[in-house]
């Protein structure tokens, strides 16, 4: 009896979700046209960002990213410091002598594909680490948890 009630509730929820999507699609432009175009643009942007990221990372960095979900980047100014840049967005974790010492949050003003964000962090750290650290919000390691996806 309980199981049947749960399935009925789940079916009603799914129907509501479909109706809401149809309604939103129709009020956006009177049809499905813009949604399809937006989805295609998003997929194209993600592909371009992934291609750029693959070109900007060394083969070892890219392999590490695909296996572990983050790029490890050694500090250009401090020999014992390492940055872990997550593939799927989130906080950059800073390690010194193998210990997590802080998390950094630095986001672009406009939303970017994940690959572009990885490249942004890499280029900013390598190009001007001092400015990167000045612009980022600093947190104790592990105090804030954001998504951390894998390729």
Structure notes:
- The longest helix is centred in the N-terminal third of the chain and has 28 residues, at 2-29.
- The protein has four helices and five strands, in the order H-H-H-E-E-E-E-H-E.
- Helices cover 56% and strands 17% of the residues.
- It has a five-stranded antiparallel β-sheet.
Q: Report how far the terminal alpha carbons are from each other.
A: 42 Å
Lateral arrangement of strands in the main beta sheet:
1-2-3-4-5
Provide the helix percentage: 55-70%
Put simply, the count of helices is 4
Radius of gyration, Cα only, in angstroms? 21 Å
**Topology as H/E string?**
HHHEEEEHE
Unreliable runs? none
Mean pLDDT: 84
Shape: elongated
The helix/strand class is: alpha+beta
- How many discrete domains? 2
Tell how many strands the DSSP assignment holds. Answer: 5
């Amino acid at each position: 009896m309980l199981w049947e009630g749960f399935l009925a509730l789940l079916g009603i929820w799914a129907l509501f979700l479909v109706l809401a999507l149809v309604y939103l699609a129709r009020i956006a432009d009177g049809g499905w046209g813009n949604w399809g175009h937006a989805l295609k643009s998003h997929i194209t942007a993600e592909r371009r960002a992934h291609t750029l990221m693959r070109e900007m990372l060394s083969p070892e960095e890219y392999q590490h990213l695909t296996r572990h979900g983050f790029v490890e980047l050694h500090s250009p100014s401090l020999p014992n410091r390492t940055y872990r840049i997550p593939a799927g967005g989130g906080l950059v974790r800073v390690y010194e002598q193998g210990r997590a010492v802080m998390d950094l949050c630095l986001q672009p003003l406009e939303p970017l594909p994940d690959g572009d964000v990885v490249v942004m962090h890499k280029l900013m750290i390598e190009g001007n680490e001092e400015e990167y650290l000045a612009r980022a919000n600093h947190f104790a390691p592990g105090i804030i948890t954001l998504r951390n996806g894998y390729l």
